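re the bet — no i am not wrong, look at it urself. input seq straight from the record:
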Amino acid sequence: MKPGPASAEMNGLVTFYGSFDAIRSERVLQKNKVACLLIPGPRDVSPHCGVALQFQWNEHEVAAALLEQYRVRVESIREYRLSEAACSALRTPDIEARRGGHRGL
């Protein structure tokens, strides 16, 4: 069973220098069936980019190889467990769902 978004099982973290690479990394890993989730970047880990990528640490070798193969620029790949409070905050309903799915111009 794959972990859900922001679960305690997703204890790997990729940090970046810019958001472009963060978004690109999510696409690369998802395309290759590696469960991952973009999250706000923990400031205690990296001051550079406000976005990080969470994934299952037991897949860190696969994730690192894919990101290198696709030449995604990363700052670091490390084991990092979010606190339960942070996991709960990330499980809140999407803002679009709260607005009834309406997307402004």
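see?? Strands lie at 12-15, 36-40, 51-55, 76-79. told u. also The chain has four helices and four strands. so pay up
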